[in-house]
Design brief:
Elements (H helix, E strand, L loop, with lengths): L1 E5 L6 H13 L5 E5 L6 H5 L3 H6 L7 H8 L15 H5 L1 E2 L4 E5 L13 H15 L4 E5 L5 H4 L8 E6 L3 H16 L5 E8 L2 H11 L4 E6 L2 H9 L3 H4 L4 H14 L1
Parallel strand pairs: 1-5, 1-6, 2-4, 2-5, 6-7, 7-8
Antiparallel strand pairs: 3-4
Helix pairs in contact: 1-12, 4-6
């Protein structure tokens, strides 16, 4: 099973991705968690110590490695670079059967996927989605960039995290349309930071009630865990967000 988690910046994608990855891993599955957001916060959210995560390489910071896999003599580049060993070379082992891969930021490229870095990225994501047996959870870059490049094509589930705000809903509606264009058949909304029933009604009216797969209450445990530099799952295993994401896990893996 391959799950892409998308949405506007700041809505809680990384926290949802981390808790979901570990809860799935606790059921005995091997999970590859992909941090495709340049902010690279997934390690902390997973509970990987800062000193461990900081020592591990970030894929797109390794320029010589990227060049060795993508560039050909004369300035051309490979459309299908070798990527099947990247998880083993760059992966960081975390708790609960989760391996983290930090992608980092692609530093070059225009509006089309023509640069070597994006050739590597597309090949890697295709390999992760289609060529790996593990469960893969992708914490995608904020906004619509991964969708416009088709980087999430082929995933089993696309979960768009939405907070009760018009900006987050606008991104969700645009992402929903782009998901249809790349034939993602299971596109669902996760409503996060819910304080009251009106928040849920507000989002459901905009996106459709049948699209909502999970409702996560606003949880101060998330902010406190972040201040302490730990995973919310380790800070408070019974936190409301953990309970809600466990219910989501059951729906996805039943």
């Amino acid at each position: 099973m391959k799950i892409a988690i998308v949405g506007k910046g700041g809505v809680g994608k990384t926290t949802v991705a981390a808790v979901l990855s570990r809860l799935i891993g606790r059921r005995g599955y091997s999970v590859i968690a992909i941090d495709a957001d340049p902010s690279l916060n997934l390690a902390q959210a997973l509970g990987i110590p800062r000193e461990v995560a900081s020592k591990a390489p970030t894929l797109f910071d390794e320029e010589e490695f990227v060049k060795s896999r993508t560039l050909l003599p004369g300035g051309a580049y490979r459309l299908n670079p070798k990527v099947d060993d990247i998880v083993e070379r760059f992966g960081i082992r975390g708790p609960d059967n989760v391996v983290l891969l930090k992608l980092g930021e692609v530093k070059r490229g225009g509006t089309r996927c023509l640069c070597p870095e994006y050739a590597l990225l597309r090949a890697l994501l295709s390999h992760l989605v289609l060529g790996r047996k593990e469960i893969v959870v992708l914490d995608m870059v904020a906004g619509l960039e991964p969708m416009s490049r088709g980087a999430a094509k082929g995933v089993d589930y696309m979960l768009c995290v939405v907070e009760p705000s018009m900006k987050a809903i606008d991104v969700a509606l645009q992402t929903m349309k782009l998901a249809e264009d790349i034939e993602v058949r299971k596109f669902f909304i996760v409503i996060n930071k819910v304080r009251c029933d009106r928040d849920v009604d507000y989002v459901e009216k905009a996106v459709g009630r049948d699209r909502v797969i999970a409702v996560i209450p606003y949880d101060e445990s998330v902010a406190e865990a972040d201040r302490r530099g730990v995973s919310v799952l380790d800070y408070n295993p019974e936190a409301p967000i953990v309970v809600a994401v466990e219910n989501l896990r059951v729906k996805l893996t039943k």
